[in-house]
Design a protein that fits this description.
- With about 180 residues, the protein is of the alpha/beta class.
- It has a single domain, classed as Ribosomal Protein S5, domain 2 (2-Layer Sandwich).
- It is built from seven helices and nine strands.
- The strands form three sheets. It has a four-stranded mixed sheet with strand order 1-2-4-3.
- A hairpin with a 5-residue loop joins β6 and β7.
Length: about 180
């Protein structure tokens, strides 16, 4: 597998808009990252946070040129809430090293969360509109920082999984959580 898709969302005023995080690796070799899709500074800086969190969680990311696309491309993406979706996209590209995600796990849920360098998942702003958007888009579940789980649970009709760290999010997607 050379492409993973993780569903997330971006705040647009008081509402949220769905964002698809596409992570693609082209061949093998030295890692080189390209982040596209109108990311702001915090999103562009996420690569350093994400790679450090993956490594400190005992997980691996693929080697080779990697493109991360935040779609739709014409919507500005702000803040660190794309850290967890990007990390899961990268980890998902290395099933031999990290273990495979359960079939369709990434297609059934939305994801949002900031990563600390040690792999902890930090709370993000706007989790209520992000959860509403995920439900309205037909997702059955949403992975959020543990500290945001109570707020996200206000939305009926969607399972909320509050995760404390990247390793727990990976285990959940592998069907172990």
């Amino acid at each position: 597998m050379s492409l993973t898709r993780v569903h997330s969302g971006a705040l647009h005023g008081v509402d949220a808009v769905g964002v698809e995080v596409e992570v693609n690796v082209r061949g093998r070799g030295d890692p080189k990252f390209s982040l596209v899709g109108l990311p702001d500074t915090a999103v562009r800086e996420s690569i350093d946070r994400v790679l450090t969190a993956i490594g400190n969680s005992g997980l691996r990311w693929p080697s080779g040129p990697i493109t991360i696309n935040l779609a739709p491309a014409d919507l500005r993406k702000e803040g660190p809430s794309f850290d967890l979706p990007i990390a899961l996209g990268l980890v998902g590209l290395e099933p031999e090293a990290n273990g495979a995600f359960k079939e369709d796990a990434l297609e059934k849920c939305a994801v949002s969360g900031e990563l600390a360098l040690d792999g902890r998942v930090r709370p993000v702003k706007g989790i209520l509109p992000l959860t509403l958007q995920a439900k309205q888009s037909g997702f059955k579940a949403i992975l959020v920082p543990r500290e945001n789980a109570a707020e996200a649970s206000i939305v009926d009709g969607i399972y909320v999984y509050g995760v404390p760290d990247l390793r727990s999010a990976v285990s959940l997607l592998q069907g172990e959580g």
